């Protein structure tokens, strides 16, 4: 018969308990019939797992491909990479929109434990691609581009503030502008010893963004934050570590290997606990961050239309010719 005698496993022995419960449900029938039903049960569970994996793969493919942005899923890790090395991973308006959609998707994906942001090539990211302002000739053009940029920036920064999963940045090389400011909205920042952090907003006639006017003074203190945001002090990886913008500095020769190990380890932590704890941490400052984001976007849209900014961008573009 299909009956069996065995000591019931501990509640903590999940695999053993599942087997015990499955066999218990078959009590009182023939051994042959019990084996058939047990095999059917296991097969159905395996098929369900395959379907779930397939659905996850299809869902990622639903994200519209964007030039310069790589999106992939490896286990419980959602990878978002800047892949425009010939332009030092500078971000175009189209890339901003694609990144916003990718981060938003990762935040809601039930199979994602952590979201990773990285750069391909020697740079992490050189910030906003100033060619976004190319072709601007009239005052109407300037107003239109500033409005478009404000909308794109608002959505981009918001997706970091609202992200529900732990955010991990792998800063392999130089980071400039918005690539630096949003790091303070991440939960873990790993940097290569070749990385640098530069926010030349004043030089370009612009103003800080990425909630940095709130987060940087909180992390560094007012004086050191002002040195970075107002006066454009470029930080080395170790200086960024000292100022609480980076969690760990890893030698460049071992950066990919060591950072991947850490990401993999963190992705295997209980996902529900990660998500709820992240949300609890964010809730303390979320309202203030969103208010700061609104102020910064409004001011930057005004700065983009200023003569100081227009002249600075024109000088930059002329040097590239």
UniProtKB/TrEMBL annotation:
UniProt KW Isomerase keyword = yes
Q: Which GO terms describe its cellular component?
A: peroxisome
> Where is it mostly found?
other
For this UniProt record, give its keywords in alphabetical order, as a comma-separated list. Isomerase, Peroxisome
Question: Which compartments is it annotated to reside in?
Answer: Peroxisome
| Pfam families reported in the protein's UniProt record | ACBP, ECH_1
Superkingdom classification of source: Eukaryota
Q: Which PROSITE patterns match?
A: ACB_2
Which GO MF terms does the UniProt record name? Answer: delta(3)-delta(2)-enoyl-CoA isomerase activity; fatty-acyl-CoA binding
Domain called ACB: residue spans? 1-51
Sorted alphabetically, which PANTHER family does this protein's record hold? ENOYL-COA DELTA ISOMERASE 2, PTHR43684
UniProt name for this protein: ACB domain-containing protein
Species name for this entry?
Parascaris univalens (Nematode worm)
What high-level taxonomic lineage is stated for the organism?
Answer: Eukaryota, Metazoa, Ecdysozoa, Nematoda, Chromadorea
